[in-house]
Amino acid sequence: MTLRIPRRLSGEGGIARVNRDKDAVLPYVEVATEGEKTPAPPPGFWTRRERAILGCLGVAVTLGLWEGIAALRLVDPLFLSAPSRIVRAGASMFASGEIWTDLRVSGLEFAAGYGMALVGIPLGILLGWYRRLYYLVDPILSALYATPRVALLPLLIIWLGIGIWSKIAVVFLGAVFPILLSTVAAVRTTDPRLLRAAHSFGASDLQIFRTIVLPGSVPLPGSVPFIITGLRRGGGRALVGVVVGEMVAATAGIGLMISIAGNTFQTDRVFVGIFLIAAAGVAMVEALTRLERRFEKWRPPVGTGV
């Protein structure tokens, strides 16, 4: 809605433009009311692609400097290989097929352990909702969360053997606690006024979970952003569990490949394994970040500076 008022009666702020109508006694000013918003111009190519362009530029500069240092032999190639040599080594490993078994085993361990760790979401909702249940298990959770997973690996190998299940257990233990504790924190930080209002209208626990605790039919800050943060942290811990478990005791996997290559001073193959793990982590984080953006519209914009 736009109001037209005489120019001499208008205030000094919020004036859009002055129109001089020949049939009007006084020039008038079009002032936008509070509910009217001027549509923002569509973002340009640089605005839409700024993050990707700068990220690719940073990677390209880093790889160029790395290649230059290796070409000038400022560092012994035994300790620091060149990106070109790493690419050739990776291509050779994929062409010969020797790396596919390691990728399959590590991928299966990660998928199984991380998938089992998703049980932390319903458990976290229960612990966050029922206060006495949380008090009952909190000492055990705190002790297990503070215990390094590597310290449990010898026990897991004794119980489950050196096969795939001991690594799945390490991945599960590494991922489940960040997911569980993030979900608990999300539920316990729900606005109590919303809960009281829902109870006063006779809402059931399931309805409260669906419409308030989780971002359901109302656009309120729910638990999903916190849960996704836990999933992101748990994914990083899961990848560490895969590599560490395979380095200690395994018959196949990327961690075992890295360990053997390091023991035989094959720096190129070590970096191939490292880059594969890093690529998997980046892809997972990017996927979860894109999912998180769908639920973070309620957050105030931050980091908008140049």
What's the short version?
This protein is mainly alpha-helical. It has helices at 45-71, 83-96, 98-117, 120-129, 131-146, 149-160, 164-188, 192-200, 205-213, 224-248, 254-263, 267-293; strands at 2-6, 17-19, 28-32. Helix 3 packs parallel to helix 7 and helix 3 packs across helix 10.
Summarize the structure in words.
This protein is mainly α. It has twelve helices and three strands, in the order E-E-E-H-H-H-H-H-H-H-H-H-H-H-H. It has helices at residues 45-71, 83-96, 98-117, 120-129, 131-146, 149-160, 164-188, 192-200, 205-213, 224-248, 254-263, 267-293, and strands at 2-6, 17-19, 28-32. It is flat. Residues 1-22, 24-31, 216-221 and 300-306 have low confidence and may be disordered.
Number of helices: 12
Return residue spans where pLDDT drops below 50 for at least 5 consecutive residues: 1-22, 24-31, 216-221, 300-306
Average pLDDT reading: 79
Strand-residue proportion: under 5%
Total domain units: 3
- Indicate the CATH topology of the largest domain: MetI-like fold
- Please give the order of strands in the largest beta sheet: 1-3-2
Please write the CATH class name of the largest domain: Mainly Alpha
Number of strands: 3
Envelope shape: flat
Largest sheet: 3 strands, antiparallel
- Helical residue percent band: 55-70%
Give the ordered list of helices and strands: EEEHHHHHHHHHHHH
CATH superfamily of the largest domain: MetI-like
Radius of gyration: 28 Å
